[in-house]
Amino acid sequence: MPFPSPSMIEDACEWAIMHGVAFRQADNTARHCPFSLAPMTMEREVYQHLRRVTPLITKLISGVSEDHDFLQATLGNMANADPFFGRLMQLHQQAHGTSDARLTPARQPLLLMRTDFMDDRQHGAKVIEFNGIAAGMGPFGQRATEFHAYLQEQWPQVYQNWLEDNNATPADNQGLNQLAYAIATTARRIQADFHGEGKPTFLMVVQKNEDNVYDQHLLEVALQQLGVRTVRRTFEQLSNQLSTGADQRLLLADIGPIDVVYLRAGYQYSDYCAPELNEAICCHTLSQTRLFIEQHQVAVNATFSQQLATSKAMQMHLTMMPAADYARWGLTLAEAELVQSVLADMKPVNAQNIAWFTHEARQEEWVLKNQGEGGGHCVFGAEIAEKLAQLPEEDYDAWALMQRLYPHEREVPTVAVRDSQPSLVTDLVSEIGLFTAYFNGEPVTELDGYAGYLIRSKPASENEGGIHSGKGILDSLTLID
Questions:
Q1: Distance between CA 216 and CA 139 in Å, rounded?
Q2: What pLDDT was estimated at residue 233?
Q3: What are the structural domain ranges in the chain?
Q4: Which of 199, 301, 384, 403 would be 112's cystine partner, CB 3.0–4.6 Å?
Q5: Which backbone phi and psi does 42 adopt, to 5 degrees?
Q6: Cα separation of 389 and 221, whole Å?
């Protein structure tokens, strides 16, 4: 099969840069996101199953995240074992009180969530993880679909050469548009509650020196086109710029009332760290800034509750629960069984399971995960037993064993392009993240809560598939019958 020409690769890279599918470099230049030249395929039936089940997962997580007694009772041991989640639990208790004295939160929950799946060869499509904070790259997901449509139109022979199945049809992807629609709709509702005038205002909380700014800016531009004013701030900037208006309205200096706060930061200690403050308690000031936001009449994603509810520990707990128990959060038994059909087996780390894993388990069938977000938080294969043997007992509850997923490898080789250089990949596997948006427990997109998808692919031989931190490439989806 002829390799793509240098002029074709150059055109593809320039399209990516021109359409914002890029990362910012330290010197303020941009480099394109790594991408595939042709999309993956999935059986239409599998995709439709995920479309049906993912909004139900979001309905479940939405209910769990507002069940404050359940959160505190269920996640207490994990919070004791994981310092970061221990801090989140303290903040959650400050915001909502304890079961003896429950406080009514002012903030209104906007759950923008990405649920990541792999289509396992043997067990079918299963959840890898829930992402409830900084669940980004919806804009990149839509752009990847548009990119492959461009290649199909402009370079049809190259596209066909590397397409897995010539009968496959692209799956529509409105990830950018639907997330913007959900946020704009929510912002207008908050503004209407205050009988506000002018444009509603959206605040994105970002990391200092963030490189993934173009994905964020694509969302901001889409919001601006829907009549929403957008502003960006770090927690450090917000620490002395927020104040309280009438009726618990959140005000931002030089801007005015805020209607929606969207956190693209806050999932790691470093997001709250301000060394120049020289604090006795690490990260106190900036984490209190996040608490201050939640004490106001503003739509927030992610709330402390949502971040706790989408943790690996909660994922494990929901996986191990009888499906009938989901009725507590408004799911029918049929809905609960549908959700559980896509949850991969998980086991707590304890002395009994460590002994079982060491002496009886097929170790290649499991992965060990801690509570961290993003890449680099998983242990695989023979290294798991070694890690378990080193863990002090007080750390057990910060970890979980999860069924390892082995997705289908692409049946034809693929060309991956990274840093403008093409390379042949013969064992590409893919992960699909489905976006959803719920406001105050109800779907808030034009697609009943669904909001598009993100495909990330990687060589099967690589454990880390992140676009940022691993060997992942941006991809899109086609469907076969």
A1: 8
A2: 98
A3: 6-344+423-480, 345-404
A4: 301
A5: -145, 145
A6: 50
> Tens of pLDDT along 72-94?
999 999 999 999 999 999 999 99
375 confidence band (pLDDT: 50, 70, 90): low
What is the tens place of the pLDDT at every residue in 305-354? 999 999 999 999 999 999 999 999 999 999 999 999 999 999 999 999 99
Closest listed residue to residue 411, CA positions, set 427, 393, 388: 427
Contact, 72 vs 98, CB < 8 A? yes
The pLDDT assigned to 467 comes to 72
Instruction: Quote the tokens at residue 216.
Output: 């964020």
Type of residue numbered 121? R
327 in Cβ contact with 352 (< 8 Å): no
* pLDDT value at 464 more than 70: no
CATH of domain 345-404: 3.30.1490.50
Confidence of residue 465 (pLDDT cuts 50, 70, 90): low
Distance of CA 230 to the CA centre of its chain: 21
Q: Say which residues have a Cβ less than 8 Å from residue 198's Cβ, sequence separation at least 6.
A: none
pLDDT in tens, 26-56: 999 999 999 999 999 999 999 999 999 999 9
Q: Which helix (H) or strand (E) holds 354?
A: helix 351-359
Torsion angle, CA of 95/101/103/104, rounded to 10 degrees? 150
Q: Tell me if residue 289 falls in helix, strand or coil.
A: helix
Residue with tokens 């914002």: 20
Distance CA 388, CA 383 (A): 9
What interhelical angle do 83-96 and 68-81 show, nearest 10? 150
Residue 141 CA to chain centroid, in angstroms? 12
Write down the mean pLDDT value for the chain: 94
Assign 100 a pLDDT band (cuts: 50, 70, 90). Answer: confident
pLDDT value at position 281? 65
Q: Whole-angstrom Cα distance, residue 428 to residue 167?
A: 20
**Angle CA(285)–CA(288)–CA(290) in degrees, nearest 5?**
120
Contact 205, 286 (CB under 8 A): no
CA–CA distance from 62 to each of 109, 296, 305, 308, 455 (Å)? 8, 19, 9, 11, 24
Q: Work out whether the CA dihedral 10, 15, 18, 24 comes out positive or negative.
A: negative
Confidence (pTM):
0.96
DSSP lists the bridge partners of residue 118 as 126
pLDDT in the model for residue 470: 67
Task: Report DSSP letters for 60-107, one per residue.
Answer: HHHHHHT-HHHHHHHHHHHHHH-HHHHHHHHHHHHHHEETTEEPPP-S
Tokens linked to 184: 């704009």
